[in-house]
């Protein structure tokens, strides 16, 4: 099945970030015909005009028809589909994020928004078990997707195997983890692959067995788990601020 030549991205921030990111060609734009007094819409229309993109005022019924959402905020653009990158393009990064079994599009979008903020700009998505970067995910991410390098070309286990073959430390987040997140940050050595699981399904057993560290987030409350996107944000914040310690050579004398 061939991929579509374009898609309709909606929401004011996503439209701005697609233009700022400059990675997708924008063919045309549609703005609510009754939003003339909205300062953000006016700014977006000027920005589109500066880039030579035709803006067509339309009614909100037409915006809903194009976006298939009531959350369009009066702004829809027709642009190229999301531009994924190749696997080798991201493996030079110090920090890579892998989503495993994160099935909820809202959680994916929220995680990607946090990833951009906390410096995890290189993302691995499996072909199965995690949704593609649809316009709904772009919307939830507030357009953060446009500033991330995202791979979607294999399965989660294959990504982990490649990371291990290159000497990258694998850190998985799991509520049954052996150590607390703060200790995991202290143990970090060199470049990492941080693996986040979903709520219905957590990180897969193969990855848990092959991880260098399986960490948990300490909890003081009575409910039994954090939302996946909240847990991911906490972990990315912790590792995003931490400076990687140099890797020690095998057989080094740590008592010297």
Description:
With 256 residues, the protein is α/β, with parallel strands linked by helices. The chain folds into 2 domains: 7-79, Ribosomal protein L30/S12 (60s Ribosomal Protein L30, Chain: A, 2-Layer Sandwich); 87-241, SPOUT methyltransferase, trefoil knot domain (Alpha/beta knot). It is 35% helix and 21% strand. It has a 7-stranded parallel sheet, with helices on both faces. Helix 6 (135-140) links the parallel strand 6 and strand 7 (149-154). The model is unreliable at 248-256 (pLDDT under 50).
Broad CATH class of the largest domain = Alpha Beta
Major sheet summary line: 7 strands, parallel
Any idea how many domains?
2
The rounded Rg comes to: 20 Å
In whole angstroms, how far apart are the ends?
A: 61 Å
Main structural class: alpha/beta
Count all strands and give the number.
11
The arrangement of helices and strands along the chain is: EHEHEHEHEHEHEHEEHEHEH
- Which regions have little confidence, pLDDT < 50, spanning 5+ residues? 248-256
Give the percentage of residues in beta strands: 15-25%
CATH topology of the largest domain: Alpha/beta knot
What is the topology?
Layout: E1 7-10, H1 12-21, E2 26-32, H2 39-50, E3 55-58, H3 60-67, E4 75-79, H4 87-90, E5 95-100, H5 105-117, E6 122-126, H6 135-140, E7 149-154, H7 156-165, E8 169-173, E9 179-180, H8 181-187, E10 192-197, H9 205-210, E11 213-216, H10 228-241
Parallel strand pairs: 2-3, 5-6, 5-10, 6-7, 8-10, 8-11, 9-11
Antiparallel strand pairs: 1-4, 2-4
Helix pairs in contact: 1-2, 5-10
